[in-house]
TrEMBL record:
InterPro entries attached to this UniProt entry: Aminotransferase_I/II_large, HTH_trans_reg/aminotransferase, PyrdxlP-dep_Trfase, PyrdxlP-dep_Trfase_major, Tscrpt_reg_HTH_GntR, WH-like_DNA-bd_sf, WH_DNA-bd_sf
Originating organism: Mesorhizobium kowhaii
Protein name from the UniProt record: HTH gntR-type domain-containing protein
Keywords: DNA-binding, Pyridoxal phosphate, Transcription, Transcription regulation
Database matches in CDD domains: AAT_like (cd00609), WHTH_GntR (cd07377)
PANTHER family xrefs: HTH-TYPE TRANSCRIPTIONAL REGULATORY PROTEIN GABR
Family label: In the C-terminal section; belongs to the class-I pyridoxal-phosphate-dependent aminotransferase family.
Pfam families, alphabetized: Aminotran_1_2, GntR
Ranges of residues in domain HTH gntR-type: 15-83
Length: 466
């Protein structure tokens, strides 16, 4: 059950606003107004109805979770907890995580091939004369040979990469944070797809930036919308994932990438390019950074194409930004993990990275084939090498009830709420991940067949129970 229009009655007494909201929700739980298993309103919706910031609602929900009254799950919602587990009915909240098929977590597929490669590499490292060099706590930008090998790899994408303008980060998200913090100041306007990775939304909130959503289609951000925004407001940067955008899986062609770069140059806008999914494509367009290197921060890693734990990020920035980027890198982690970076470096040099990525593409192609057979003509946006699928819902469904019903049937999927910039319209679609969170193909097939039945069901879904 979901209270889509419910909001707490908050007293006007003094004290922190988030505490008052938490107390009011706690009182509603104690009084039976909110029952165990009910989902609280999405933070964005409740903040709008109460005329408070999303951060205030976030802190209120965090306080309730600290008290043990609710349980929050990213991308799925916040639910009232059962005080006595023995009384929990067979519903969406009593299922243990291991009883659910997780189609909500983004991670590449892993097999015995990865385990063997890692075991062999750790054995080689233990005998290496270079092991001692990995104990150093400088340079902050990463060891020189790590940057050199990374730069050589990025040159194959037609990028002007060199060790002098590269930083090794702890994954792509860390690199994007460093880049965004390097080119903006509080209050600056930043553009992004109107459906964007939730980390961009969170980073913008923490850095006190004004995030503006841009219209997009199956090829990504529409250049005309970007240009129109730049004509109206002083845009400082654009965050863009041109290859398999999360969550929409859109793929920007080279012509549009060039157009985005030209608009950014015309209006003096920094480009922050997230290419974490890029390695999954065998033939991919050149990065946007290749068309405007003087104003582009380009970030990528292997966490979505090889191993989720292989969190070596490569951040390429213009020389003019290096000093600021180094200071942000130092502040948010001092330097990257040299041991993980060494594994990435050696695997790049000996061809293991290329071999594991090719293996990943084959596995994902098989997953997409299973998905295509199960879903048939159901509308969706994806790519044979993508880790996720964007699935518009049939007209009778709303996303909240659909996500909850899917969970009741044993599936974890992600609604659009974490990805929506500002108060943009709910697109009535869900994101389905098809990677390692469901490792066995048999379980994957069972899950997507369950999803297909749900999509085709006659369940009265447009009006949630109150």
């Amino acid at each position: 059950m979901t209270r889509w229009t419910w909001k707490p009655e908050v007293s006007s007494s003094g004290g922190a606003r988030y505490q008052a909201i938490a107390d009011a929700i706690a009182a509603a739980i104690d009084g039976g107004e909110l029952r165990p298993g009910e989902r609280l309103p999405p933070q964005r919706d409740l903040s709008f109805r109460m005329s408070v910031s999303v951060q205030t609602i976030f802190r209120a929900y965090a306080e309730l979770e600290r008290r043990g009254l609710v349980s929050g799950e990213i991308g799925r919602g916040t639910f009232v907890r059962y005080a006595n587990p023995d009384k929990v009915p067979g519903s969406i909240v009593d299922k243990r995580e291991e009883d659910l098929l997780d189609f909500s977590t983004m991670a590449p597929i892993v097999g015995e091939k990865h385990v063997k490669a890692l075991r062999d590499m750790l054995a080689a490292l233990s005998k290496s004369r270079e092991l001692e060099s990995l104990l150093a706590h400088r340079p902050i930008v990463g060891l020189h040979h790590h940057r050199m090998v990374g730069a050589d790899w990025l040159k194959t994408l037609d990028l002007k990469a060199s060790p002098e303008t590269m930083l090794i980060t702890n994954g792509c998200q860390h690199g994007l944070w460093v880049a965004l913090a390097s080119v903006t100041e509080p209050g600056d306007i930043v553009a992004a797809d109107h459906l964007v990775d939730s980390s961009v939304i969170t980073e913008s909130m923490i850095l006190k930036l004004q995030l503006r959503g841009l219209a997009s289609d199956e090829s990504g951000i529409l250049p005309d919308g970007f240009a129109a925004l730049c004509n109206r407001e002083r845009v400082k940067a654009i965050c863009v994932t041109p290859t398999l955008n999360n969550p929409t899986a859109s793929l920007m062609d080279e012509e549009r990438r060039r157009a985005i770069a030209e608009i950014a140059r015309a209006f003096n806008v920094w480009i922050i390019e997230d290419d974490v999914f890029g390695p999954l494509l065998d033939q991919r367009p050149r990065p946007i950074a290749a068309f405007a290197p003087e104003r582009s921060c380009y970030a990528t890693s292997f966490s979505k194409s090889v191993l989720h734990s292989l969190r070596t990020g490569y951040l390429l920035v213009p020389e003019i930004l290096m000093s600021r980027a180094i200071s942000r890198l130092r502040t948010t982690g001092w330097m990257s993990n040299s041991f993980v970076a060494e594994i990435s470096c050696r695997w790049l040099a000996d061809g293991t990275i290329a071999e594991l990525i090719a293996w990943q593409r084959r596995k994902l192609a098989r997953r997409h084939s299973i998905l295509d057979r199960a879903l048939g003509d159901a509308q969706r946006t994806s790519h044979p090498a993508s880790l996720h699928v964007w699935l518009p819902l049939p007209g009778r469904w709303r996303t909240g009830p659909f996500v909850e019903e899917a969970r009741r049937r044993g599936l974890l999927i992600t609604g659009p709420d974490p990805f929506i910039v500002g108060r943009d319209t709910d697109p009535h679609a869900v994101r389905l991940t098809i990677g390692d969170s469901v490792r066995e193909d048999e379980d994957f097939q069972r899950g997507v067949e369950t999803l297909a039945r749900l999509l085709a069901s006659d369940l009265e879904a447009s009006s949630p129970a109150i």
